[in-house]
Amino acid sequence: MPLSVPAPADFLQYAQWAGIFTLVCGAIAVLGFVFKWGIRFRFVGVTGFMIVLTVGLLSLGFVPLTRAVIPGAVRYATVYDSGATQVVINIPATISKEELNATLEQAASDLFSPGRLGRSGEPLIIRARTVLHPEAGVTQPLYLGKVERSLLVREDENMTITLFDENIAQLPPPATADAA
Length: 180
Prior knowledge:
By secondary structure, the chain is of the alpha+beta class. The protein has helices at about 10-35, 40-60, 95-110, 165-170, and strands at about 75-80, 85-90, 125-130, 140-150, 160-165.
């Protein structure tokens, strides 16, 4: 049976119950100090933990856990991420132009975060590269394209994708099934 991710409304309900339990633990901690119970310090710790848990559940209620899936995108690996405006992803050398375009869109969606550092108006730039081995012992990184998107808007209508045709032409031809 597949697991399903709870909806944001579910997390808000969980946060409500956790908040109620936090208040109960806080009240027990206060009573513990008033009546000098030995368990009072444990309830201070439990109350602190429950505050952190409640705030986390509340934040999950506001931020959806969904991820966009772009058809035709291939798997990529993040090679460099400055945490601000520069990201480099690695893609296979067997990628087609259509797959490259879809993969750049997928990376732009996946790597967007409102917590990235950057000055106002500065775009997030994601560069896609592959690694070629033209001869033994030689490694050549080859940048195939880039996407520029807003750091501030999740659904960026002004996102621009640029493919480097001269570099794509340097990719090895795809292997055919008949060539065996």
